Amino acid sequence: MDLGFLLHALIPSWNSVAILATFFAYLAIVGSILPGKVVPGVILQDGSRLHYRCNGLLSLLMLVGLLGIGAKMDYISPTAISDRGLELLSATFVFSFLVTLVLYAAGCKSSNQGSSLKPHFTGNLIQDWWFGIQLNPQFLGIDLKFFFVRAGMMGWLLINLSVLARSIQDATVSRSMILYQLFCVLYILDYFVYEEYMTSTWDIIAERLGFMLVFGDLVWIPFTFSIQGWWLLSNKAELTTAAVIANCFVFLMGYLVFRGANKQKHIFKKNPKALIWGMPPKVIGGKLLASGFWGVARHCNYLGDLLLALSFSLPCGISSPIPYFYPIYLLILLIWRERRDEARCALKYKEVWAEYCKLVPWRILPYFY
Ligand code: NDP
């Protein structure tokens, strides 16, 4: 690809802006009107808590259904996204940049002292814009943090489906493409089935909404997690049956650990007496779960996620490092995040955390890290 073509493809077109605007408008409207379980978020410092309407699965299924009908009736092209990958990437980047400038300005002007909207300043403009000023900014009653992560996860699936449509049109569908698509569909659907678990994650409870999070949700998740799919459009990987089975095994193990650990923590937070692996939970200081996956390593959920990430890349074989971008990035991110989370927990739980660390010495991978 020559540089001129690349630069031209990166200029956001009106078409890409229209696709993005329609997608956000759809999400805002259906997110507000479709039924869904209303889940209370964690209790914030001032004693307040937000409520999240978890209707992401219904919104997604309806969207895919509508797009499918639109494509069948020739109103829209199923390859509309895959044909405009770079344009959409830059349009989304520009949107993220602009929206975080607005968030910065709104945060500066806010005089609200509630935990959700209270402005946090360091005095360093770049740092405040990057990490955000407010914890849970809203727009027209929509919680933006929850909205953006939902948009990112759905965007990833839409990109993948469009890449699959391109592959079908080009008659290049391979075992690798099918495996990659299948794993991602299962992972994304699972995310929305358990969308309520998101409400107790680090991003939602601890991270303010700045460029880092908005860019991560809207640009990074959909456009870099789908690199394997894009790569398979122009590259081939021959997979033996044994490789396919091994790949499915890595996915399954990753899924069991990832979902199992996140589920155990979520259940424990709701009911600290609930059975874990069929036994009464081991609890430290009445606050921390130290059995089940949380007795194996202090962030077993990260291990599961890393195995899943690896399983999304293995279908591409080992001829190129490009499809391994996602697991490598995730490894770095989760090690960094685990360190930050540990520091936060040490501060919050004090000697209870120290006791937990003594009892469960492994951070992510038992006997290794
Ligand atoms: P966790 O879900 O692990 O949440 C950490 C919080 O859980 C801690 O701050 C603490 O919060 C609580 N906690 C920690 N240990 C215990 C314990 N033993 N018992 C009870 N509570 C405990 O972290 P994340 O929010 O970072 O991750 C959630 C999921 O999202 C993970 O599976 C992760 O892999 C995934 N993820 C994926 C990313 C991707 O790009 N694919 C990026 C980031 C995350 P409290 O103060 O409430 O007790």
Explain how this protein is built.
The radius of gyration is 21 Å and the shape is globular. The protein has 15 helices and six strands. It is mainly α and 369 residues long. NADPH dihydro-nicotinamide-adenine-dinucleotide phosphate binds at residues 201-202, 258, 262, 265, 268, 288-289, 294, 299, 301-302, 305, 330, 333, 337, 341, 344-345, 348.
What is the spatial order of strands in the main beta sheet?
A: 1-2
Task: List the secondary-structure elements in sequence, H or E.
Answer: HHEEHHHEEHHHHHHEEHHHH
Strand content: under 5%
Secondary structure class reads mainly alpha
Secondary structure: helix percent:
55-70%
Molecular shape: globular
The value of Rg in angstroms is 21 Å
Gap from first CA to last CA: 41 Å
- Characterize the main sheet: 2 strands, antiparallel
The count of helical stretches stands at 15
* Average pLDDT figure: 92
Uncertain runs are none
Bound molecules: NADPH dihydro-nicotinamide-adenine-dinucleotide phosphate
The total of beta strands comes to 6
